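User: I'm curious what two different proteins look like when written out as structure tokens. Can you demonstrate?

Assistant: Sure. I'll show them one after the other, since each token string lines up with its own sequence. Here's the first protein:
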Amino acid sequence: MKRTIPLVTRRLSFIIIFVFLLTGCDYFRNSEIPQLPDVSDISERLIPPTQTPPPTSPPGLLNFVAADYRIDLDRNEGVPGAKLVYLGQSFDSESQLIFNVLVDDAPQVKRVDDSFYWRGVIAPGVQAVYDLRLGRTFSNDIVKAAGTVAITLFNPTPNETQIPGCAAQSLCFDNMTYDVWVKAGERLPSTSLTYVGNEQGSLVFAADDGQRRSYRLNDSLVWRGSLLNDVFINHELRLIAVENDRVHVRGDSDLRLNP
């Protein structure tokens, strides 16, 4: 049997809906909608502003890196310029190969691929950081040391002059990467040349004596001279790009120290 809703109940339902429509809309219209936080500057707060990186060499300093330094050491032989000495190799109680070394005159035991690290002064006004690793060779007496050597010169005074070769007693660091951008009016680092600017396609540099030297894009630039007493450098460079008031110079440098 079909069930019917009483007339009184239906009328009461209509009255309730009508009252809600009259009052409920005002409630939602007058109610305050929660305010969301302002996120317009979220990227500025989460990502710090880009900072200009410090120059490669602060004023009064020159930095060089021999990025592929390698040397083979025989028994009782040291790394030139550093207090790192290889004494010999042997085996531990578990027949594992070990290297006996001196670091700053202190005996240490190293294994294959262990660090061979030293920091100190290698010549007046010159500090070096030897960050090397030890490896085996085909000889039972010889060990190889390879890694980087970071060199800092304090208060250099570049002077263009002839330079000596790499003698037996010299400390020689070859094929160091040279890669800089130089603006007009700035000194080409570790030389006595200042970039004057681009003059109708001629890239002009001026020496300390005022002599001007003109180059074209992709020309080579060679500079040899002293940086400190008994510290010499040979730059084999090339002018590879020009952008507004600056020039990109790249090449190799050989450093010679005669302590």
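Here's a second, unrelated protein for contrast:
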Amino acid sequence: MDNHMEEKMSVEQLINLLTTFTKEATDTVEKFLASDLVQDTTTMTTELGKTLSDAVKGLKILKSVASIPSKLYLRKFERFCRDLTAIPLEKRQKYLKSLGREKFNNESIFILNVINRIEEEDKLPLLIKLLDARMEGIISSDEYRRLTILVDRTLYEDLLYLEYNVTANPVALHTDSDYGLVASGLLVTVGNEWIGDFTNEDDPNDTGIRFNYTSSAKKLARILFGVHCNSTPTNTGIAKMQAISEERIKRILESC
């Protein structure tokens, strides 16, 4: 078997495992996944059912023969499968049925790639919250993918920063998380605020440039942390520049 076929088989195995956990996993599966010991097959089958029991055993076998990089990936994959149980089983089954096998496989490949890129395991429960919102119809398929990618490329600490700092008002950049959110595309330039004479309380490093939280940032705050923010920016204090024609400039000068 060539390397390409081995890779293909591995992806197919992971998709099948993810399908089984999505369709059948309950809280009971956590104790079997959490243990590195090989559990009694009869006990596991009795508590989980044959299909889910076989999936747990299959995942453990993959972990036992995997290389170190693959073990690290499977550790994240297993965490994601465990966290799936935070979504009610009936909702997961309904979602799986509504998508159909082909669409679910495509979505599985997407999430498997995201899991591969994610370096902070604490982000995995956040992915589950986005998936739950997708299943609820709160966000579309495109929004789900877009927000998932944003979670992937944003530091975990910066995502937590959203919970207490997201706002509809323009903000100045003060903290590392502010700059991190700009780099992730969750804060964008909106304009300049006029700055008068500095007082002792003013920041001498303030350039006057202001930023708005994007609609995606506000959606993440709502879905991940339950924080609701006005979707329309207030643009309070932002100075608007307007071009003046040469003719108007001439009239202004003549009137002086």
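A detail about the second structure: The longest strand covers residues 187-193.
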